[in-house]
Design goal:
Elements: H1 7-13, H2 16-32, H3 39-63, H4 65-68, H5 86-107, H6 110-134, H7 138-142, H8 144-147, H9 149-158, H10 163-186, H11 188-194, H12 199-202, H13 205-228, H14 234-256, H15 260-295
Helix pairs in contact: 2-3, 2-9, 2-15, 3-5, 3-6, 3-9, 5-6, 6-9, 9-10, 10-13, 10-15, 13-14, 14-15
InterPro entries: Protohaem_IX_farnesylTrfase, UbiA_prenyltransferase, UbiA_prenylTrfase_CS, UbiA_sf
Pathway: Porphyrin-containing compound metabolism; heme O biosynthesis; heme O from protoheme: step 1/1
Function: Converts heme B (protoheme IX) to heme O by substitution of the vinyl group on carbon 2 of heme B porphyrin ring with a hydroxyethyl farnesyl side group.
Length: 296
Amino acid sequence: MVSQATPGDFIALLKPRVMSLVVFTALVGIVLAPGSLHPVLSAASLLCIAIGAGASGALNMWYDADIDALMSRTSKRPIPAGRVSLGEALAFGLILSAFSVVVLGLVANWLAAGLLAFTIFFYVVIYTMWLKRSTPQNIVIGGAAGAFPPMIGWAAVTGTISVEATVLFLIIFFWTPPHFWALALLKSDDYARAGVPMLPVVAGEAETRKQILIYSILLAPLGVAPWFLGFAGIGYAVASIAGGLGMLAGAIEVYRLREGAPARKAAGRLFGFSLIYLFALFAVLLVEQGLIARYL
């Protein structure tokens, strides 16, 4: 049977929007890390991290093809739409996974490669195959996979794991639940239809709103930690404090508005703002402690 897949379908398997966040946060880890890595090797390392993230996405879509077909948000993905076969997606993901890990080990070091391999394993096996279908805490625990890229970038340069890299990991880790649960409030019917035990489906929307508020309260001071620990400057302090207050305000609004169109709009606003918040924190770090410190 002749494949109906186009290059665009295989690009879609890589989840490019998710990959862009991975690449950006990994870049921050590379730039902030002490020491130096040749620009060509830095670019190659970043490419390997991107390919590894894309491979995770492809394997996630391979395993989740059955539930993707039931959800309006994902039903047009290449596999449920019938343009890419399960075998093609599996082979694509496995080949890219092996390539990204081996090449990262060769161009950077094997600690970074090991972290990338563990991240792929965690996202595909621990999150996708186990947690996603078995517990409403899937996003909390599974969020670790999305938090590793700055740590991998740091390790690629230094060959070590540091306090700074761990703090960047924790910021993304605690950011993930309020970010995705805000989306889950908007897509709870989709998740219920697919049998995915997301928190709004299992525990109800009231509990989800409370958990969003709790995690936002924890995230706000954690976001300021890079400045408090001395590896970020006053610009970051202002951005992180303002952004943390914005996250708290959004979470309080979501918690307060319980039903109807205003509640859905509040969840949508928090979801959108959370993306801006994380991007702003890492962008300020990149400019303030990376580009400015290195070139000015």
